[in-house]
Amino acid sequence: MYLTTTKHFRHKTFFAYKFTIFVTIVLAVLNLYSWFTNHINNFFTGYIINANATMKPVTSVSFLILTVPFFLKKTPTKVFLILGFIIQILQLIGIGLKIELTGIYSFSSVATIFMFCLAYLSAFFINISAIKNYFITTTSLLYLISSFAIFFYLLNKNSVSSFFGFESLSWNTSILFFINSIALFEVVLMENVQQYNFKITPYKKTHPYQYFPYFFLLPILVIMAISTIIYYNVISKTLGVYIIFLFLNVLILFSIFLYTFRFIDFFKVISQKSKELYNANKTLNKVNNEIQEKNLYLEDFATITSHNLREPIIALKELQNYYKESFKNGKLNLREVEQMYQSNVTNLNYGLNLLINYHDFIKNLNNKTLDNISFSKSLKKTLKSLEYLKPTNTTLNFKLNADIKLPEAHINNIFNNLLTSSYMYNVEENELKIDITTYLTRKYFNIIYRDNSTKLNQQTTNLIIDNTSEKLKNYNNDRSNNSYGLYFLKLYIKKLNGKIDLFNNSNKGNLIRIKLNHE
């Protein structure tokens, strides 16, 4: 028990409850000692206050039982509380049967028995069943009855004995019930907030742990001290009662102010944390959406990679079979094989370039700090990088009436796809003509791209405009219908919040109109 008591008393909370347990045990033990040594005429028994209302030994035992929940766990506590109830019931039966007992076997007053029942019920509701509503009722009644007895003793110590049930209620007993009722209130309130004992600095100063003890301990100390001073006639009863009521009134006002003040602090912290949580959640949702968008592009990337790499391998195998068969039949045409080989390498290079550009697009998808480059500079840079792919009979005409700066990664990809598509769809024996015109309107930077390539048919154009990658995947079974480059173009334009229109004429070629918002 010593270790348990030391452990409990070392803890920084439950000041009022600990003090109450200590006072209750000391007074109960001293009272028992006084009775068993036959020296009851002292202050601790209440004899010198009112000889007819001396604290009885059974009352002391009942108070010791009330302190058990502080030291023991739930199961043994339940046993002791039941024992306490039995003691009170036996006393009531004895009083009802008018059994006269004297000395150490004397019964407690009816008021004392009733208050013990209330106290045991309160302890039971806290420690065993956790029924808070019933606890408030029983503890409030205990507080009211004990307060009534104390203040009657202060005003006229003999007048309280005129009430039924209070005939032999001692002042000491009333004080112990009073401080126990306050301490029980502290226990239940601390039970409600102990799980929120935040370690974080902003919460720590607002936590009830920091000021609960003072609200419960101070009334106990002040009322006990003033009552003792009144008894010894240091001050008058009227002045003492006035001091007590003034103190309680100030304490209530101060507690209301402090609770409100701390609640406002706590509300500010909670509001700030809620705002931070909302912003974090908003950012998280944004990142999640960006990841989902990237995942869709990565899915396309995986499918297109498989298509663009598998197709040249199949073509190489076919070329190998053609070579073997032609060599076996003696009909090998080296120039034709060379052209087929070169065409396959060109297609492979074309596909790899598309994938590289698409990879850059995915990588920079959500990059907010992309370097800008002027339209004209990007065009020159892209033409230079695709020089190896340009057909020999190609004519380029530029009419750049306006210029604009755009993210380099995106605008480079636009030119790369436009020019690559023209180069790849051109029929070698015809001269390839490419015209690029730019101009500004009130809202848009306009790009008109024309070429005379004839292999981009209307079906492919419709698929690109629909922006349906799944249809394109199913449609692209050979290189002649490969439209991934223009499909990527649509994605790049969309990323720049632009618009694209494709017009195809099987005889005249293609016209692509791009409108980019420049406001």
UniProtKB/TrEMBL annotation:
Keywords annotated in UniProt: Membrane, Transmembrane, Transmembrane helix
Domain of life: Bacteria
Gene3D superfamilies: Histidine kinase-like ATPase, C-terminal domain
UniProt KW Phosphoprotein keyword: no
The keyword Mitochondrion is annotated on this UniProt entry: no
Residues of the signal peptide: none
InterPro entries per record: HATPase_C_sf
Transmembrane feature ranges: 15-36, 79-97, 103-126, 133-155, 175-193, 214-234, 240-261
Name this polypeptide is given: Histidine kinase domain-containing protein
Organism in which the protein naturally occurs: Neotamlana nanhaiensis
